[in-house]
Amino acid sequence: MERTILHSDMNNCYASIELLHHPELRGKPLAVGGDPERRHGIVLAKDELAKKAGVKTGMALWQARQLCPEITFVPPRMDLYLRFSHMAHEIYGEYTNQQEPFGVDESWLDVTGSCSHHGDGLAIAREINRRIKRELGVTVSIGVSWNKIFAKLGSDYKKPDAVTVIDRENYRNLVWPLPVEDLLYVGRATQRKLNQHGIRTIGQLAQADPEYLKTRFGKMGYVLHRFANGEDQTPVSFSNEAAPIKSIGNSTTTPRDLVNGEDVSVIVYLLAESVSARLREHHFVGQVVELYVRDTDLSSMTRQKKLAAPTNITREIAGAGMELFRCHYHWNRPIRSVGVRVTQLLLDHVPVQMNLFCDQRGRDREHRLDVTVDDIRRRFGFFSIQRGVAYRDRTLSSLNAREDHVVHPRGYMERGNLTGA
Amino acid sequence: MSEEVRCKVYVEVGAVFRPEGTMRPVWVRWSDGRKFAVDRVKHCVRAASRKAGGVGLRYTVMICGRETYLYYEENYRWFVEAKT
Q1: Backbone dihedral region of A54: left (phi > 0), alpha (psi from -120 to 50 degrees) or beta?
Q2: Which of A14, A212, A252, B66 is a plausible cystine mate for A32, CB 3.0–4.6 Å?
Q3: Does the model's ipTM exceed the 0.90 cut?
């Protein structure tokens, strides 16, 4: 049976919620921006008027002000946005239990099962659109289709406050003329590669030979070909099932630019502490450490390293991170953001091959030390015990990496490749 | 959705919680100290107040013979849409 899938996207989510709560600011351009004091001074979200003036997400606040002098900045209130997200999920939940959030403001809903009593996809989409407006005071754009990819394209097709149906009759006219980079998983690099092969629209991608795409893009070639043809079979997951954790990571934009190895080590240790504490909390050990670095020009690199033995020891994770850093970063520019991630997780009680040539007793001691620090922090607060390295620069080490970051966007293929390719 | 801007004023409210889990406002105290009985609750829906700026449970109530809205905001505070 053909599925009926909705993708609902709250329009300018953060900005709309702020405008709802600040009636006096309506009709003026507005941006939600981070705390300029702590240099998280970028535009997180903007309203229609600011968008028209050319303000983009990710811009520094001063750049936005140059483009749009009359703009108002309001600091973000993440807890409020999360409550709105929760209220929207409650409404969606009245139509289906197959509801999968994609970030704070987007959700896929599989309403195949409720079409018999709520009406077809279009009717349900219109009802949800109307209810969100009335009950939450913000607008949503909803795409309706038989697969998740086209449903998402549908919600992007017309904004704000719209419903777009993409069915088997109209998809060639609606979807195929769109630029190929509108497709999920076509980022800047893939777009460039596709463009080089003369593929500029989703339609051209759909009509390309999948075997040829395979030679250029590997397995993803098949996946992209399916996406473009509406053949993606990835299910909308059930609301109550959590995806298995595949990696644990953390990244931060630093309170000031990092200019030398010592600065970087303060941050890498801080992140490694947060990551390893979460690994221990969930009883994981990881085998691969990944380091992410973004410079002041916003160009970034990611490097991975496989460890000799699976670990959740702070010092080993930080050490691997710093080793990656020393090997691969050449200081062309100062650094703005750093991330540490551990992947290829195993449960910490799974037996592993011991290594004769490493000091296992020392590792055990180190692990006990980490656990003790976790316990002290749990009882007396994060800043009650700090590494010596954190005292080299109190500004840099003032961030509590573990508690400052709670929202993690999830990957489309977090549960593996279920596209059918 | 009227765009007339009203003032959002948080007020003190007395409420009754029934054993089946519903909640009903019984009196409201204005910021100037005057206290009014809620004569009747006509209706309760989740709704956004575009006028005052807020979201929550909207109680349509009768106070002194006049119909007005009382909002129980999602941050657990009560507000009214006051004329500016």
Answers
A1: left
A2: A14
A3: no
